[in-house]
Amino acid sequence: MASDSNDSSHEPLEIGGSVWFQAGNNTLGGASRIALLAAIGETGSITSAAKAVGMSYKGAWDAVDAMNNLAGEPLVVRLTGGKGGGGTTLTPRALKLIDTFRAVEREHRRFLERAGAAIEGFATDWDLIGRIGVKTSARNQLYGTVSRITRGSINDEVSLTLPGGHTIVAVLTHESTEALGLAEGAAAFALIKASWVVLLVTGESGAPLKLSARNQLRGTVQSVKRGAVNAEVSLALEGGAVITAVITNQSADALAVAEGASAVAVFKASSVILGVKD
Asked: What is the C-alpha radius of gyration for the chain, rounded to an integer number of angstroms?
């Protein structure tokens, strides 16, 4: 992901498309070939028509030959002799083809306009589709916005603010910061393995714990799933994000974790992997 100025997710979502005629598996022509036919009809000259549509003389004749062959009948004919020394003209079939194409193209434009109106506001959903399509072995995938980058002599400290206001801090190299195109305001996601998350149960004061681990996310126990040895505990954070920790059943009993209880998920900044949508 490049800087904000190059991030396509900040551009309005639009629908585009083009029309072309097809004969079997072969393309008879699209807008450029139809434009060439129309220019031939207007100028009476392959040379002039090619210049008008920005095509080489050879390319124009190749296109004409292809259209004549695929149509099964002449669309463009060369006249010889006469006062003007001959010229090039269109057959009635070619004129009908131009009219038909223009009619189809008008309907196609109307369709695109209607479709464009239908997807108004869909850009956010499209971005979400891209995010939820990420596949990774890390259980915790938290999406947010880069709120701060503190540069050190070797590594950078990047703060990612989640939708609910929680902030995750990650430590990564200068090269990684540059390669990911991280900058304040950029969208990114944090990956944290559930086994890297330590779970603590404290009072309700909400005061930060005195720990060397930089990340401390307070939430409410949403679920406790016990296995033969370990328990999977999920905390719901303010704003809707969920972070999961894997602890032993013995630890779950000692902490008395249960649905609805308050707890804190703790993990080191070095345990956070940052990623961006390409």
From this structure: 32
| CB neighbour list of residue 91: distance below 8 Å, 6 or more residues apart | 73, 74, 75, 76, 77
Q: What SS3 class is residue 167?
A: strand
Q: How many CA atoms lie within 13 A of 212 on its CB side?
A: 2
Please give the torsion angle defined by the CA atoms of residues 84, 88, 93 and 95, in that order, rounded to the nearest 10 degrees: -80
What kind of fold does domain 134-275 have according to CATH?
A: OB fold (Dihydrolipoamide Acetyltransferase, E2P) (2.40.50)
Provide the token pair at 145. Answer: 């916005």
Q: Where in the chain is the domain with CATH 2.40.50.100?
A: 134-275
Give 43-64 pLDDT, tens digit per residue. Answer: 998 899 999 999 898 888 888 8
CATH 3.10.620.30 is right for the domain spanning 20-118: no
The reported pLDDT for the residue numbered 23 is: 60
d(CA 54, CA 75): 20
At 212-230, the pLDDT tens digits run 888 999 999 999 999 999 9
CATH 1.10.10.10 domain position(s) in the chain: 20-118
